[in-house]
Write a structure and sequence with these properties.
This protein has about 325 residues and is an alpha/beta fold. Helix content is about 55%, strand content about 15%. The protein starts with a helix and ends with a helix.
Length: about 325
């Protein structure tokens, strides 16, 4: 089964570029940018990854991204992820980036996106990985800040396919950003939002995403299973769900394999993703393998999960058909 998973062509729709920052790279960037770390070794960094919920994770996550300053830093961050993804036979990615986490430290928006875009181009040429970038707003910052960053993105609109919403969900509902997302839709962006596992008012947040924001996709979304009407509407609107098993285990002590299987049975377009693999120590193939070990998924179920990712991707029909054929060729080969 491991060999089958490793060879399966995959798409990843929920991975935070800042969350792919590996401890060794943190030290390398800190040295280059003359930043003093509170840790002595990369292993000390890993040992500090003692998070048990979203706020405890975010505290470490934002502190680490402080080593990113130059265009070359963002290029390396992004290209290192693509190199690792290529080993997992990931052929298409829609990665997130969090510009507010950098502009708030004095890094120019142009610096961030130029480094990322250059890495995307090199990954396409050198590794055969296609990608489309998603800009996320931080929900624990103001809607005004999100609006400012939406404006910053417009000169680079051809490099960005959509916008998302991440970070601390407590008391930060989707409707806080209703106007920003309406403006993003008007600008031609696709829309997605995080609805992380077991957050405060989570069912209300999912409902707002569907009815008010009218998202094209939902990130995480496991709790929708608690409400049959939500499940029905997700199927009706053909919304992809970007679930992250190993990430879930840090929050609910389970890879949510039962929930993922239930979603498959309900014909919900559930997909498997790595979220923040530099922190959760598991890239996409690792997530598939862990999920299979816990839930004993069949090759047919795993194939459907892989197909769902290409189907839920923000690609045109011809590109989707191309990737589905790659899966067909792999299965029949």
């Amino acid at each position: 089964m491991t060999a089958f998973i490793e060879g399966l062509p995959k798409a990843e729709l929920h991975v935070h570029l800042e969350g792919t920052l590996e401890p060794e790279h943190i030290f390398e960037l800190a040295s280059r940018n003359k930043i003093e770390l509170e840790y002595k070794t990369p292993q000390d960094v890993i040992d500090a990854y003692d998070f048990h919920d979203l706020p405890s994770f975010l505290k470490i996550y934002y502190a680490a991204m402080g080593v990113l300053h130059t265009e070359q830093d963002f290029y390396e961050l992004t290209y290192h992820y693509f190199e690792r993804a290529a080993k997992d036979n990931v052929v298409y990615v829609e990665p997130f980036f969090d510009p507010q986490g950098h502009t708030s430290r004095g890094v120019d928006f142009d610096t961030i996106i130029n480094g990322i875009h250059r890495a995307q181009e090199d990954a396409r040429k050198n590794l055969g990985i296609e990608s489309n970038l998603i800009m996320c707003f931080l929900r624990d910052m103001s809607a005004e800040s999100a609006a400012e960053h939406l404006q910053m993105s417009l000169p680079f609109k051809d490099w960005i396919i959509g916008v998302g919403l991440d970070s601390d969900e407590k008391d930060n509902p989707p409707t806080k950003f209703q106007q920003v997302f309406a403006d993003a839709r008007q600008a031609g962006y696709k829309l997605t939002m995080h609805c992380d596992v077991n957050q405060k008012d989570i069912l209300g947040h999912i409902r707002e995403c569907i009815d008010i924001i009218k998202v094209d996709r939902i990130d995480h979304g496991i709790n929708a299973l608690e409400d049959e009407a939500l499940c029905a509407d997700i199927v009706k609107h053909d919304l992809g769900l970007t679930v992250c098993p190993v990430s879930n285990r840090f929050v609910v002590q389970s890879l949510t394999s039962n929930e993922i299987r239930t979603m498959l049975e309900k014909n919900m377009k559930v997909t498997i993703n790595s979220d923040d693999p530099g922190y959760f120590r598991a890239y996409l193939t690792d997530n598939f393998i862990a999920l299979t070990e816990e839930g004993h998924f069949s090759e047919q179920e795993l194939t459907q999960l892989a197909r769902n990712a290409f189907d839920a991707a923000w690609l045109d029909d011809a590109d989707k058909a191309h990737y589905q054929q790659r899966i067909n060729d792999y299965i029949s080969g």
